[in-house]
Structure formats: C-alpha cells, structure tokens
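Hi R.,

Here's the chain you asked about this morning:
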Amino acid sequence: MTTMRTCLLVPTAGVSAAVVPWRRDGQLAATVIVKATFALEGGPNARPLAPVEVRKAEVYHRNNPSRSIREADDLAPFKRRADVVFAGSARSPGPPVEELAARLALLRGGKPLLDKTLRVLGDRDSEHAALRPFTEMPIVFERARGGFGFQENPLGAQLPNVLPPTHGAAARPAGLAPLSWTWAARRNALNGASRKLLEQEIAEITAGIDDYFQCALPDQRTPFLEPDDELVLEHLLEGQPKLALRLPRARGLAIARLPGETISSIELVANTLFIDSDARTFSITFRSARPMPSEQALFGARFSGAVEVDGAPVHWPELAVPQPLAPPPPPSQPLGLGGTVIMAEPQPAQPGVSQTVVIEEPRPLIGTMIIEEPRAPVSLPFAGAAPSPARSSEPRSIPGAPWASMPAADLPSHSFAGTVELSLEGVDVPAPAPPPPPPPAPPPPPAPAVKPTAAKWRKDEPKEPAAAPRAPAPTNAAAARAPSPAVKKSIYGKFGK
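And the predicted structure, written out as tokens:
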C-alpha cells in the first residue's frame, strides 16, 4: 500500500486548518483552509468558541450513510462563490402549530445577499388531510418532496413537511442543508470527469467543474462573506423566534515557508458559512491557494493558518523548514596502511641474526571514512561457510599449461634467508586446563529374559517305548460313515444329541 504524502501544517490557537495540494493545467498549487467557530447568539461582538474540526469527509445525519448529510467536507481547493448552509430544525416559538415559515437571510448594507423562506407543515395522512400540530420539525431532505424516481432528491417523501414558499412541487428539493457530492445536482457538475482524480495525492482539477465544489443549493450561494454582514434566522432557534447578528470582524490569514525561502503571507477569503442551530454555533471557513514551483517545494514547505478577530494580534509559530541538501562529498579514497613496506634484498644468513623489515614513517590518511552501523549477527543452526570468491565466466590461462596459448614465462627466483626468533619470555601463558573427567559409564542393559524350552533327550537317557500299532479301521460302510465323538460334538453340541 502506497503512503500518500501530506503537507505539513503548524497549527495556531483558536482555529482548525488543513492544506490541500492540487494541480490545474500543469500549474501546481496548495490551498490553505482555516476554520473558526463562534456562538450563535445576539450581541455586538461574536464570541469565539473552540473550533469545529475541518471536515475531511461528509457527516451524515445520525452517522447513517443511507441518510442525507448534515455537513459537507471542507477540502474544496477553491470556491467561486460562498456557500451558506444550515443544519437544524424549524421550531415553534410557543405552543404547537400546524404550519410556520422558517427564514434564513444574509444582508449586506441592508440589501439581501440571500433571503430564503420555507413553509414547514405538520404530518398528515393524505394530501388534503388535516395537519397534526408540532413544536419542532427537522429541516432535512427526507422531509422535502422527493423519493424513488426523483433524481434531485432520492430521499424525499410523497407527503413532504418542508416546502418552498409557493404552492406546488419544486424542481429542486426544498431545504437549507448542504448537498452530498453523490447527488445528481453535484455529480453532474463533474462533466464526465472521474472523481478519483480529486482523491489523488495531488488532486487533478479539470476544466469546467468549478460548480462541483459548491455544496449549497444554488439559491444559497452568495458573494464572499465580509465582516459585519448581517445574519437573520426566524423560527430556527429554540425559544427565540428571531435572531439577527453581525458576522465577526474576522480575517483569515496564512503564512508559508518553502525550503530556502523566507516566510510569505497569504490572504484568505471567507467562502463558507455553516449554521448549526442544534449546537447554537456557526463556523466560517476561509481558504486561498498559493502557487508552488515544484512537488519538492510543496511537500517540503511549512504552512500555518489563523483568524484575526477584531484586530487582535496573531501569535505565529516558528516555521522551521529543512534546508536544501548539500552536494554529496567526493568519492572516498580506499583506506589502508599509511606507509610503505619495503622488503630488503636477501642477505647471507648469519647465525643469530634475522632479516630486517623496514617500515617508513606513516603518511596521513587522505579521504573520508564511512562507518556503517553495526549489523546484528545472523544466527544459523549450522556453521556458515565463508563466501566463495566470485568466479570469472572465462577460464584463466596458466602459462606453460598444456592447454595454454602462451609458453611458460621465466619466473624470478627469490630466496629468503634468515632466522625469525620468537620468544615467550615475559609473557604469561596460562596453563592448559585439565581435561574434564570422563562421564560415568552407563549401567549395563538388563539381561534378556530366557524363554524356557522343552529339554531334548540325550543319547544316554532311555527313550519312551514306542506305542502299539493301531487296529485297522472297520471296512463296513456304516462304521466308515459314523463320525467320531469329537466331530459329533462339534456338529451337534449346540443342538443336543
């Protein structure tokens, strides 16, 4: 299994972040994604909360893949417009009601960027039956019109609870939740391209698929978010019929440092707003891309992302990156003795005088010594034989041999005369250890049992007299047919006489 490389991201406090590498038309880029979470409550200033993690996969309702999604994944490399999506329920402000209007709006300078209202009905048994009152109704695609055969909403119902503000069936599903990438509305935006290209280590982005990365319904896509945009929720929060708040003065920032370069800054844009009325939070996701010169620079770079809220300074971490590797050293010279051994010409042997070996002064070693880490010895159940030297595929030619192509050469003769005296004086030689005593002799095996046999007659002992000859058998037929007593007993013994 091949391990996919990832870009290193150094986190900062108060945000969750990710880096997505991708390529389009041969241009390599990295997108930095930063996510910040705030409390869904009124007041002049939004209160930051612990960030919701960057979603690397879709989150299903009740973690059931057979249902619609609650959150889309956050790994889109870019978005041309902002997505505004909602997860939660429509809620009655007081006693149960049969119908209410749920509204989601985003205003800028008093002008709507998004203003969407849904009709929410109670359950009923037929199209024109009475509605049953409710206090809470989930706004999910399972409650919108659809079902088997509805390509836009295969999970919908024939008697929906969530409807568009006008009567009649709508071409697209009524709702506020994000769309799964498996649904036709997004899958068709791939324009025939394979999704596997987006799941590679470096996503390959083909032309004409920009709308695929938008997870909101088309009427919930707006220009990029800006500070002080006003968010309005009606009948979407428990105990609060209407909530109006301004988005925080938040600015997404990122820094990147490539090997051998200085730190560069990246300005991010806010292009996703996710509202969770059940948790009473909302999250803003910022992203932006930076071109990369090569894959080596991409996966060797260090990134960090942060969100600056109300002008508070950001405490950036240290972005240490590995420097480019130095060129390898020149090949090392072979190591050996640092000197020359000269064998003197043989001299006539003299009694008590040995030949002389002259060793010159050693010269310094030149080169690089490469020491390998010791390797663990290999345990064999038998003594390993020394490896035989490599043999040449061609036979060696020995001068003077019968098969040789050249005559024998006159080899110079050398005579080494002299005496080498070895002395063990002053050397402690340990005495040989006494041999171990022989092991005790094993006890003799027990004598085999002798089976008694019948004794043979000796020649000097008297033999038993011979038996008298038997009388001849009767000749009459009756006597010949009469069975012997032993035979008669064996035949008739079981049946009586």
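The helical segments are 184-187, 295-300, 477-481, 485-492.

Let me know if you need anything else.
M.
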